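Supplementary notes (optional reading)

For those who missed the lab, this is the record we used. Protein: Amino-acid acetyltransferase. Length: 155 residues.
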Amino acid sequence: MSHTTVPVRKAVASDIPAIQSLLNHYAAMGDLLPRTRADIENNLAHFHVVEIDGELLACGSLEHFTEELAEVRSLMVRTDIKRSGLGRAIVQELIHLARSRQVKRLMALTYVPDFFHRMGFKTVNKEIFPEKIWGICVNCYKFHNCDEIAVLMEL
C-alpha cells in the first residue's frame, strides 16, 4: 500500500482499547513503556491511527514539550504488517501537523533509527532534550540505563 493512500485519521474514544492493546503488545516486548487507559484517554487528542476494514493497524502521537519542540511517541504498527508503509504514513502526518503548528524541532526516541533516518531525521545526543528527560524519562524504569536512540528533524 502506498503511504499516500493510507487513511491516517485522528484517534477517537472508541479507538482507545485497540490503541492500548497495540501499545501493550510492544510494551510486553520491552520496546516501549506501557501506557494506561487513563493516560491514553488524557492524550487521545495527540494520537493518529490507521484503521482499515474496521481494524486499527497502527498508531502514533505528536506530543509537545514546548512551542518549538515536539515528539513522535507511541509509534506502533501491528507486528504482522510491519514494513507496509503505515508507520511512514503516520509519521508524515505528524510531521505535517508539527509544521502547521510551527514546531521547529521534532524528535523521537527509538530502537529503529534507520526508519527515521530514511524520513530525514538525524541521530543526536538525547541530552539535548532536557524537556523530555526531566519531564518523562525521569519516571522510566530504564532512566539510568536507557538504550533508546534519539533522532531529530529540524522543521
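If you only remember one thing from this example: The chain has one domain: 3-154.
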